[in-house]
Design brief:
Elements lengths: L1 H24 L7 E5 L3 E3 L2 E3 L2 E7 L8 E6 L6 E4 L1 E4 L7 E7 L2 E8 L5 E4 L4 H10 L4 E8 L3
Length: 148
């Protein structure tokens, strides 16, 4: 009798394990967002031209999210590791840029959900420009939307 009980417990434990695994694998992937960026900008020591970009979090369930920006018309994009940015309720997805000395640097991405955003490290070029010019950069935002 004890053997049957232990077998039943083992089967339930294994079944529970697989249910948890399959539930996390089925976590809904956020929709790709589109941003029409009207200026050339830099991110992670790369400069990208103005244009329409598809913005995606590659590993949205991980605490170390990676943001991907790729031109809508094709061409090379960029993938950048981010850190979390906590803020007030962000109902509208947007990209936040620091503008300094005629150049734009991607600073944050606020996706479509909740109070969490994604923050990007300042690049070497941005740090050097801040040292050279001094002063405080201005902030510019670009709205993102789901393209249907």
């Amino acid at each position: 009798m004890k053997t049957n009980l232990y077998t039943a417990i083992a089967i339930l434990a294994v079944a529970g394990y697989f249910n948890v695994g399959s539930a996390s694998a089925q976590t809904a992937r956020p929709a790709d967002l589109t941003a029409n960026i009207p200026f050339e900008f830099s991110i992670s020591n790369q400069t990208l031209p103005a244009g329409e970009y598809i913005v995606t979090t590659v590993n949205h369930v991980s605490p170390n999210k990676v943001l991907q920006l790729r031109p809508k018309k094709g061409g090379s994009g960029v993938m950048v590791q981010t850190t979390d940015a906590i803020g007030r309720g962000q109902n509208n997805p947007k990209l936040v840029f620091r503008h300094l000395g005629g150049r734009y640097f991607l600073a944050e991405a606020w996706m479509a959900s909740g109070n969490e955003g994604l923050r990007f490290k300042r690049s070497r070029a941005e740090k050097e420009l801040e040292r050279t010019l001094g002063g405080t950069p201005t902030i510019s935002t670009v709205a993102m939307y789901v393209k249907r």
